[in-house]
Structure formats: C-alpha cells, structure tokens
Specification:
By secondary structure, this protein is α+β, with helices and mostly antiparallel strands. The chain is globular and about 40 Å long.
Amino acid sequence: MTTTRTDDSAAIAQILADQYKAWAAGDADAFVADYAEDATVIMPGTCRRSRAEIRQGMADGFATVLANSTVTDDIGDIRFLGADHAVVVSKAAIAFAGETEVPADRYVNATWVMHRRDGKWTVAAYHNSPVVARQRPATHPNRKIDTNPTITQ
C-alpha cells in the first residue's frame, strides 16, 4: 500500500481531533495516546520532557483549572519534512467551563512536530505562544512602548 500526503495529512489531523476529544472528556491518558515516549511540550512557563510528564500535567489541569474546558484548534498548515516528519502550524484557544466565546488575547499560535514511527504518526514536540504579544515594561528611560501595536498574522 502506498501512503499519500493526503493520507498523511488526514492521519495527522485525526491525531489532533482525537486529542481534543480527550481534552473535552478530561482524559489525560487518551490525550497523550499519540505522543512519543520522549515528546516535549513547551508553553509559556512550562517545559515537559516526556509523555509521562505531559500526561501528569494534563491530569493535574483536568482536575483543576481545565476541568470542563474545551479547545478550538484550527490547522493552518501541515508541512512535510521528508517522508516521516511534518510540522503543523495551528491557532488554538481554551474555552473554560461556562464560556461560550474565547477572548482574543487567549489565542495561541502552535507548532507540532510530528514523526512517523513504525508506520504510525506521533507527536514528537508541541510548542505554543500567545498570538497577541504581551507588552513588556521599558528597560530604558527613553524607550517608548507602543500601546496600540499593529498585529499581523
């Protein structure tokens, strides 16, 4: 059987869809089911270096602040880096329990590094950062901070 990029793209998109179904169910085991054993996750203030650490972080979150939350994740691009690697770029946000809309400042740009191992796509790494850059205080008395920045995406 020959695998096409369409098949690969569909398999990768399904991994993300399954992951967010697991998120909505608060199921940390299912959430990390497609993560490589040595996967990494980097988010503001967090660096997890294994599937076990990622799973524990999600279990802790689902038991507290992430309880009954959902995620919206829109895949913008899947770029293949050879036969067995791909980078996914997406825009995502968390809707916390009771929210019907996500504030614009809560969206993140995310990258996923996907790796096919033994014929199965896995998440090798995930990283996200806020879509809207947070303002930093001036470090020099003559530095001005733009309070109305233009944001391009």
